[in-house]
Design brief:
This protein is an alpha+beta fold. It is built from 3 helices and 4 strands, in the order H-H-E-E-H-E-E. The strands form 2 sheets. It has a two-stranded antiparallel sheet with strand order 1-2. A two-stranded antiparallel sheet has the order 3-4.
Length: 98
């Protein structure tokens, strides 16, 4: 039996965190559905997979500079037709821990 959509959101958050830490843009983007809609922390609307790939290729490589990122599901709610609305918060920590 496949995991429930909300439970799956937690698995995706963990996989996003790992892909970010490895600076693996392809893995990160591969976690998005082809119909995904993403609003970045800076308010940019990014849709599908092509737009996230272009955006992340600019911001992920070298973006942590020895720091880290933690991803956690802040909100996950089934939205019908197999869709889930998910809010994943990222906490960025610099190399000095701040």
């Amino acid at each position: 039996m496949p995991p429930a959509p909300v439970e799956m959101a937690h698995h995706v958050a963990a996989a996003l965190q790992e892909a970010h830490a490895r600076e693996d843009v392809d893995r990160y983007v591969g976690l998005f559905d082809v119909a995904s809609t993403w609003i970045t922390s800076r308010g940019a609307l990014i849709v599908g997979r092509k737009e996230p790939a272009e955006y992340l290729a600019r911001v992920i490589p070298g973006g942590l500079a020895g720091g880290s990122v933690a991803c956690r599901v802040a909100h996950a709610r089934p939205a019908g037709d197999g869709a889930v609305v998910v809010v994943i918060e990222q906490e960025h920590r610099r190399a000095d821990g701040r």
